[in-house]
Structure prediction request, 237 residues.
Amino acid sequence: MRPLRVRLKIAESHRKRLDAILTKQSLWNAYVDQEKSIQEIADELDVDYHSVWWRIHDYGIPTRPHHWRIVCEGPRFSKGHVPWNKGKRHLAGERNPMKHLSAEQRMKFRQVRSRVERRLWADPAYRALMMKRVFPSKDTSIERKMQAQLSRRGLRFAKHLAILNCCQADIAFPEEKLVVFCDGDYWHNRPDMRSRDVTQDMILRANGWRVLRFWEHEINANPAACAERVVNELATS
Prediction:
């Protein structure tokens, strides 16, 4: 693991590079005036798709409707796309250095890593950068059920939207300032997770966002009823 100062320096240099090349005027000229696609802009500037999309969203540049598909459904790789890790060696079996550590050494390593991660997440610049990453990488089953119900009702939403550097909403309606969370019965019932969820809700509501949380058993029992609650909440905006 790189030292903290090195990781912060890399994150800061990456942010400065994006600030320099993804200005509001340049994106407006390319996206609105020249009618280039987000992928074309990303390829020309040698940055990833989501970096361009988020800057367009943050600057308030009106997006074309079909570009919401990638935000809602995730990117679709074209035929012939080569995964980044194809053919690369991975640390497995005897080549994994962690395999030869004792239980005490592993515990010490986890404690050190935990302290470093807490210090990193305390830095606003690093937190803002990391919140742009989509996690988890795949939608959960209850998230997919809610997305399907909302899509059937013709609603347009964003997935895994980073808000106020405090959370990443499972489903979000940015224009209506409404966020929807699909909470698993096990993980979100843990004391630390419940405390985190309460803190997130307080920050969101203090900044004008409305919050709806649905438990896993609620969505599994009647996803249509949960979706109707979202529709009713949107109707009151």
